[in-house]
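Reviewers asked in the last cycle whether our approach scales beyond single polypeptides. To address this, we selected a multi-component target totalling 730 residues and predicted its structure end to end. The input consisted of the following lines:
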Amino acid sequence: MRRVVRLTVTLLRDWVRNREAVFFAVLFPLILLIIFSFVFAGGPTEFDVGVQNNDLTADGEPTALSAELVGAIEEASPLAVDQLDATQNLTQVENIEDATNRKRVLIIPKGFSERVRDESARVRMAVIQDTTERFQGNISASQQQDIQAALGAANGTQRDGAEVVLLTVPDDEGAGAVESIVDSVVATFNDRALGIENPTVAIQTEQRGQEGLGATDYFLPAFIVAMVLINGVMTVPSAVAQLKRDGTLKRLAVTPLRKHEWVLANVLQQSILAVAITLVLIAVAWLAFGVTATPGPLALALLLLGTVAFTSLGMIVGSVIQDPGSAISLGGAIALPLMFISGIFWELDLMPPTLQTVAEFSPVTHFHRGLRELMILDSTSGVAFTFGFLAVLAVVFLTGAVMLTNWQEFD
Amino acid sequence: MASERSQPVITTTDLRKEYGSTVAVDDISLEIEDGEIFGLLGPNGAGKTTAIEIIQGLRTPTSGEATVLGLDIQTDLHKIKDRIGVVPQSFHTFERLTVRENVALIANLHTEPLAVDDVLDELALREWADDPFHSLSGGYQRRTGIAMALVGDPDVLFLDEPTTGLDPAARRATWEQIEQLPAMGTTVVLTTHYMEEVEYLADRVALLVDGHVKAIDTVPALINTYAGELKVVVHLDESTTGTEADALEATLRETADSVHKTDADKLIGVFGERQAAQDTYSELHDIGTGHSIDLVSPDMEDVFLTLADSTLSPGGELQ
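The resulting structure, written as structure tokens, was:
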């Protein structure tokens, strides 16, 4: 064990002085974590929309009803409303973006208030007529005549309802969402215009279960897993192949050092690095994004188990490949697809069903899921299986690495 | 130079290594004695490195046996590795670590190492102890390799082509360090293709060609047995005519015990008797003017010429 510890110290010392290794193992994941967190954690999405209110009074002020509609639209939180000058006629323009520098413009036409009032009155009259017909027997003949005369007068003023126009550009991916939001606002406005303050059916939204994951919560375990994979399956094989090529490994092989001690020293080195780099990532995530990830004993144990498994896999790659460049390529051919099919950078639900099935067989999927449960969600759901899965892999890969490492016949 | 002979520290019996149909080591049987500097001399590809790597446990023999310090290389390899030191050909180590750190690493892998600083002092490396390995010159890198090999306090030290690639000054300095090792109780096994290296350092030499040991003895005994008393070396140049060259060779062949013609346009006549060499030297002077002649004492090159019917280029190739 003394030899393993001494060699581990040497490997760590050599690693610390290797600027490229430090960059790719520590700074690179940190930079990615910060970028991903900022890119995907920018707060609720807002949709810009311009509103041109053409329904003005004689002195140029918005009519009460149109102003009420604009106010309701402004209050719809996903919309960022920008009011446009009413002097420009937008209904005939070829390209709304060229004309207004906006992708979406809602136009409230002149006469909007008047039409709303008329349509409101017509509908109310229709309701009254319907009610009258239902209760004909209880109303005197003269009263009925008066009512019919009034309804006839109201119907005589019937016109089409008020219309607002939403103009969008063809490639606007947010147009559908904006249309739905405006539609919802207009529906509420219509109800109120008819005197319906309380809708017949309302949706009550309640939050149950745990708070959803923020971007940094999601990406912190992802980058820890990526760091373990990149170091273990890509960097380690390249380093081993390089030491083999330049004769350093041969030099060690003629000392009393045994090959299982060589493998263990590399695994121990990577385990120490994995814990150290994880702590750095957690510290940065806490300081920069307020993520309170807690690497408890189980999370650390899982991290170490994953590191042992993937570093041992890397030792196998390094032991069978002679050229450092080829070793890093083969390591990449293993690590990168594993990362991408295992949903560590996006939710598995976003992947096709076939790939989701494949992902369930990937140890990286379970490694990531386990770390997320333990560190972010403070849960142990499914973690036992992950421990078992990774433990089996660690034993298999570690045994394979010791068996396949060449301690003789160097070329 | 070791003067006393005792128990052999290394024995090989019919040691053989085959790679497919190629025989790299052809039934080598050797005994290397305690406290000597033993040279394995041969051209590149002769099997020198393969032979010592079998003894070091870095390769498995196809057949044959070997012991180091009385321990079998097949069954006691771990014990053997604790008692030997190795400076491999094309030596390299952790290049970002300092000289001291590299030497300390090897010390920590051995059971009873020497003090690191003592070894650094012994090899005059103290001044460079805190320099990274990659910043050292070739000579100091090789010296670091020797320090790493010695820090385990080995009974046997293997040096594989220890001065290849070094400039003459660094080579001479390395030789001076190597020749002190037997006095420290270390047996040295040296592989090289430099004739002058074995002449300077080796107590005994095994001449290896095509995986086969052609001869084993001390340098003087080898020269005496295989290189004769004197040799006449004729250097041909561009002005030497074909007729002149033929006449020179014919004259040499009439009187010399053996004649060798090298690619470097040299005719070498080896003589068992001093007088015959001197007479031939005078006779050759009378043949044309397009050449120069030296009358020199024979050396290991002549041994090699006699046994391998070739000489060695500076790069270690047969020519």
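The interface with chain A takes residues 56-60, 78, 81-82, 84, 86, 88, 90-97, 101, 105-106, 108-111, 132, 148, 152 of chain B (CB under 8 Å). We regard this as preliminary and will revisit it once experimental data from Aim 1 are available.
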